[in-house]
Every structure is written in structure tokens, then in C-alpha cells.
Design a protein that fits this description.
single chain, 150 residues, alpha+beta, three-stranded antiparallel beta sheet, globular
């Protein structure tokens, strides 16, 4: 059901924790399934130097949080904005269709942290939309086909 990468990131998650005085913090949840993700970003000179997360949820939620933080470290803000739920799922070698919402939570929590960074610094990040608190409101945005991403 789950790929080896999903299981590895669930059993040995990377970047768990908090960043004190983070440049940006984003929290999103999904009331439908109860998962909650909080992402912390440390941004210096437009580069994401560090990312941490805390997730309350299923194994897929932990794995997607872990992978999303791995994908974003070292990226520019513009590159980080291009990380989608689909790219997170693909980096994990796929997710079952019923768990694709976890990858959307990962994408949205990253974007929420970037939004927080932009608000704290009174800047506009082109292409960044105001985050939603409940990702269930955006389930129609899932980038998947009928069978999910495999």
C-alpha cells in the first residue's frame, strides 16, 4: 500500500521539531481527517536555510511533512512556491488516492509559512495566495488522476 520511501519518512522522519524565532510559521489542518501540520522556516537572503515540522496525523501526514521539509531546504522562495502536493507525492514514490490530501496539507503548510514570512517582512511574494486554515476547503485542488499518483 505504501512505498518504501513513505515508510522510511514515517518511521524516520527528517526535520521534526520547531525553529525558535522562525522567519515564517504555517499551520494548516483538515477537519475531515483530523490531520494538522505546522511548518517552521528559517529564511536568509531569500534562501530557505532550515525547515522543521510538527504533525498530528497519520503515517502519510508525517511522511509528507518530512519530505516537504527535505524538498524545501536550500531552495529560494520562488523555488519553494513550485513545490506542489504532486511533487511531494512523487518524491515519496506515490501515495494511495485516499492519502493524497496529506500531500496537499504539506504544500499548504509550506505556503502558509511563506505567507507568514511575507507578512512579517511586509513583502509580496508573487504567486503566493493567502493560506486556508482547513485544507478540506480546497480538496478540489488536488492534483491527481483517478488512480492517484503511483
Amino acid at each position: 500500500m505504501y512505498s518504501e520511501k513513505v515508510m522510511d519518512h514515517f518511521m524516520h522522519p527528517r526535520n521534526v521539531g520547531e525553529i525558535e524565532n522562525a522567519s515564517g510559521v504555517g499551520t494548516v489542518g483538515n477537519a475531515k481527517c483530523g490531520d494538522i501540520m505546522k511548518v517552521y522556516l528559517q529564511i536568509e537572503d531569500g534562501i530557505i536555510k532550515d525547515a522543521k515540522f510538527k504533525t498530528f496525523g497519520c503515517g502519510a501526514a508525517v511522511a509528507t511533512s518530512s519530505m516537504a521539509t527535505e524538498l524545501v531546504i536550500g531552495k529560494t522562495i520562488e523555488e519553494a512556491l513550485k513545490i506542489t502536493n504532486k511533487s511531494v507525492a512523487e518524491a515519496l514514490d506515490g501515495l494511495p488516492p485516499v492519502k493524497m490530501h496529506c500531500s496537499l496539507l504539506a504544500e499548504e503548510s509550506l505556503h502558509a509559512a511563506l505567507w507568514d514570512y511575507a507578512q512579517k517582512n511586509n513583502i509580496t511574494i508573487e504567486g503566493l495566495k493567502k493560506p486556508v486554515e482547513d485544507v478540506h476547503d480546497h480538496d478540489h485542488d488536488l492534483e491527481e488522476d483517478e488512480e492517484g499518483i503511483n
